[in-house]
Amino acid sequence: MAYPEPIEALIAAFQRFPGIGKRTAERLTFHVLRDPSSAGLARAIDRALQEAQRCSICGNVAERNPCPICSDEQRDASQVAVVEEPRHVEALERARVYRGRYHVLMGAWQPAEGTEEAHLAIRALVERVQAGTIQELILATDPDAEGEATAQLVLEALESAGVPQLRVTRLARGLPAGAAIEYMHRGIIEDALEGRREVHLRT
What we know:
Structural class: alpha/beta
């Protein structure tokens, strides 16, 4: 037995979100129906669609174009961190340790999930690099299979474009502070060993 058409339409709308299957979409739909305050969700979505926009330089989401980071002359325009999503920009900004600029790909390469190379802002990145103002590109994609594949796509695009005199770096990876080695993933331990530093004895 099918639900009423408005309910089916809302379930289908939730299913269009990444990682949301039929069951989860149903739970979200009936939560919306139970909670009167959920009406604010529609208004919030509508406002985000109306007021948020993509920065024409870095691709991040903002209320104005160019975004505040690209408009800030105190930021180092010669250093650009390539990230997958706007949330990664927010995470790096929250740490307050990076003063360069960004390029947001708006996703990671996941063909199984429907995200192909053409969906990512790689071409726009190559064009920024070819403009000649970027000296260092920091590959700051996630340290997982999708992030590594995405970083490789970026590298291949840069190589195909024949970009000269560009320094390309990758975020360092290793053991997080306060973590126990016995619980670490094999890849994290491998990266930590490869990136080990020499410790000098005091004599």
